[in-house]
Design goal:
Elements: H1 8-12, H2 18-71, E1 75-80, E2 82-83, E3 91-95, E4 105-106, E5 110-116, E6 121-126, E7 135-136, H3 138-143, H4 147-154, E8 157-162, E9 165-173, E10 183-195, E11 201-215
Antiparallel strand pairs: 1-3, 2-9, 3-5, 4-7, 5-6, 6-8, 9-10, 10-11
C-alpha cells in the first residue's frame, strides 16, 4: 500500500468554499443590517428628544411672555374662547395703561392677544400711540360682541408672542374691581412642522399642550 502524505503548504493556501463564502456574506449582511437599524433608532431618538425639548422651551417662553403682558396691564376685557384645533381663534382685549391719565380706556392704550391660524402664531396686536384714540366705555370694552373685530381693524402693529401653535383657548376673568384680580387663563397646543421636499408641510414630533394663568398685578376700580 502506498501512503499519501498531505503537503502542509497546500493546506495553508486552500481557499474558502462557495458555501463558506455564502455563510460569511450572510453573517456580514445581518450584522450590517442590525448596525444600521440601531443607528437609525438612535438618530430618531435624538430627533424626538430635540423636538420635545424645543416644544417645551417654546411653551415656557410663551407662558412667561403672556404672564408679563397681562401682569403689567390694568384690566382684561372682552374675549373669544377659541379652540385647541384652531377652528376658532382665541382672543382677548387688554387695557395696557392709562397713558394720558384721564381714567378712560382709549384704543391706543389697549392690546389684543389673538391666535392667528394663517401664521400659526399668537399675536399681540396694538394701535400706535398716534393711532385711534376712540374711547371705549367699560361695558363696550368688556362685553361688546364687535369690539374685538373693530380693534383688529384699527390695530396696525403686530408682534408674535408664540410660534408653532396649533390652537389656543382663552378665558378672561375681569375681577371685581377690589380684591379679585383680573386674570387670563390659557391653554395652548404647540405642534412643530417642517417643509417637505415637494413644498408641503408635515408635523414633527408630538403635540404639546401648555396651561397657564396670568394675573394683573394690582386691582383697579373699573372705569365707567
Amino acid at each position: 500500500m502506498v501512503s499519501q502524505r498531505t503537503n502542509p503548504a497546500a493546506l495553508r493556501h486552500r481557499g474558502f468554499t462557495l458555501v463558506e463564502l455564502c455563510l460569511g456574506l450572510i453573517a456580514t449582511a445581518m450584522v450590517s443590517a442590525a448596525l444600521a437599524a440601531f443607528t437609525m433608532s438612535i438618530a430618531k431618538s435624538w430627533q424626538s428628544t430635540g423636538n420635545a425639548q424645543a416644544a417645551s422651551l417654546s411653551s415656557a417662553a410663551t407662558t412667561m411672555r403672556i404672564d408679563a403682558i397681562v401682569r403689567n396691564s390694568r384690566l382684561t376685557g372682552m374675549y373669544n374662547a377659541g379652540a385647541l384645533d384652531g377652528s376658532s381663534a382665541a382672543a382677548v382685549l387688554l387695557w395696557l395703561d392709562d397713558t394720558n391719565g384721564d381714567g378712560a380706556i382709549q384704543e391706543n392704550e389697549c392690546a389684543m392677544l389673538e391666535y392667528d391660524s394663517a401664521s400659526r402664531c399668537i399675536l399681540k396686536r396694538t394701535v400706535p400711540s398716534n393711532g385711534s384714540t376712540a374711547t371705549l366705555n367699560y361695558a363696550t370694552f368688556s362685553s361688546s360682541s364687535t369690539v374685538l373685530s373693530n380693534f383688529r381693524g384699527d390695530a396696525t402693529t403686530t408682534q408674535p408672542v408664540a410660534r408653532d401653535v396649533e390652537g389656543a383657548v382663552f378665558y378672561a376673568n375681569a375681577g371685581d374691581g377690589s380684591t379679585d384680580l383680573p386674570r387670563l387663563e390659557f391653554t395652548i397646543q404647540f405642534q412643530r412642522t417642517q417643509t417637505t421636499s415637494d413644498g408641503g408641510t408635515e408635523t414633527v414630533g408630538s403635540p404639546l399642550t401648555s396651561y397657564g394663568v396670568a394675573t394683573v398685578r394690582t386691582p383697579l376700580q373699573r372705569p365707567s
